[in-house]
Amino acid sequence: MVEEELAALARRHGVATRYTDWRGRETGVAPDTLRSVLTALGADVSSPAAVREELERERERDRTRLLPPVVVARRGEAPPRPPGRPDLTVELADGTERPFGGADAGDVPPGWHRLHARLGGRHESVPFLMAPRALARPGRAWGFTVQLYSVRSRASWGVGDLRDLADLAAWSGRDLGAGFALINPLHATEAVPPVGPSPYSPMSRRFAAPLYLRVEDLPEYAALPAADRERLSALGAPLRPDGDAARPIDRSIDRSAAWAAKLQALESLHRLPRGAAEQRAFAEFRAREGGALTMFATWSALAEKHGPDWRAWPAELRDAGSRAVAAEAARLADRVEFHSWLQWRLDEQLAAAQRAARDAGMPIGIVHDLAVGVAHGSADAWMYRDLFAPGMSVGAPPDEFNQRGQDWGQPPWHPRRLAEAAYAPFRDMLAAAFRHGGGLRLDHAMQVSRLWWVPEGGSAADGTYVRYDRDALLGCLAWEAERAGAVVVGEDLGTVEPEVREALAAHGVLGTSLLWFERDDRGRPKRARHWREPSLATVGTHDMPPITGFLHGDHIDLRDRLGLLARPRAEEEDEHRARLADWLALLHAEGLLAAPPETVLGALAAGSDEYDERVVAALHAFLARTPARLVGVALADAVGERRTQNQPGTVDEYPNWRVPLAGADGRPVLLDDLPSRPLPAVDPVRPLASEAGPEPA
Predict the structure, then answer these.
(1) Per residue in 532-570, pLDDT tens?
(2) Source organism's superkingdom (predicted)?
(3) SS3 for 375?
């Protein structure tokens, strides 16, 4: 009886008591996991009596409330009638109020309003969003998928920056007919070195990393005398790639060194006086960004003094709204302004990158990437502390490629409290991402539906799923995307429920089709004509080796060396050869690869690279034959890179997110040299440029 009541309480809070694993097996969740998750959600489960009391409170809450915290409907559709059938009126954004219900309920103008419910003597009022029915689908297009930090030019300070992004977009759009450039998250990092390497474990998803600024493009730099410009530019000289194509790579990306040099230069530029027009523009930017910018800049100033993890700060500074924080912000006003100024200049350079993409003919332009979450000690976790669930980390259950599960070390949003805040931080984050881009990729698309919560200190395999209001989150996403005229791509790989993919598609969100994972019901490679149309199709992802490395089984060797294999190496190699043979056979049968599978496999077994470029080209020709709306070509695949950017399951054992772009020979490939380099992967997809153009949903 006790366990049944615990399970019932868990279900009331959207906590899964059972789930289907990656092998299709039904798996129960341990009671201890349920207790930990429910405690993080604010429920008292300290005793059987406490559980029963919590259950009764939940039932009473359902009996007495008239409306949920937020109501979201899609254009042309009326939301479900609340229980008890209260009288409903909608207060429109312009202040007018009218009855709400019946056939005309779906005719409310798009955007945010308020919904009022009255029943007897009770009255409730909540935010109400009329969201788009579905986003318009983009026309067919191809584009590079890029880890921007790895794409260095001779002018960048050791890390690919926003000028490099603008130049990459301009070249690929103008000369190659690319319709977009999909990049890694540019989310904010630590305020001072050292800088964490992962773009997917940021300090803030709302603000960007000044690490990506091009110092020489700042107006303050241009206004300096020549001698001062030379002095500042010299700070980056030790970090710039020397462009010597004969020199093998001997070091990884050093974000900390790059940020230390840029920070020194940026501080010098910030100290320069600003004219009246510039000061007015800066003030307008700060007013537009409001309290969130001020709080982020305050966190940055405090982090310079106390370190990046607010949990280790003096107790009185851990509450972002405290008087002590306000006093420190006033004392550190110059540093608060400096970090606000950095975001202002970032906003301008982000806009310039998107402008360069569109001027080059890209119908979409820059597609930004939204990480699943932020680090525990991050700015966002400090700013919105009450909206995160304590003692929990987001991760993933065991799957085919990560058989021990994953713990990403990121606190999850508290579903109920986020809803009670009308999803404001989520909406602001989306609006910022769309402001200077033509699209957004949702890393781990289940972040809008359910997340795998792992109790801190426990195994990633001992977590469970916690549900969010998918309709509300997708409504917010679709509304912000429609306002920006942008496309949205969801990374719906791995253990994703079918209804999640259906909901994404219904809202006009494209899915992700990954070639190595696309199989039919019999486990065979899926023929091109059977692929999903509303999707971004790629061969691999940043968590897998590039094509050339995959062909040669580099990922098996790496995982074996790092002790990450969950079964004998021989079994991994046998399965890899079988999978590869299936794909080579399909490419050969469709006339995309002239050499028979056994010939290619024999060359690979002998360590030969004779067929590498031909297989890479054939795989992308196959993608071009699918009906997928968007086709992504990893820049790493285009230049023949063999090393993976990220090996899941590792931290320091592998240089994750620090691998500079290189060719198959291990020598550096600089952005400046790309226009003169043969790119066999691009040729098969270039005709897609003629099909680009928005289409109605």
Answers:
(1) 999 999 999 998 999 999 999 999 999 999 998 878 999
(2) Bacteria
(3) coil
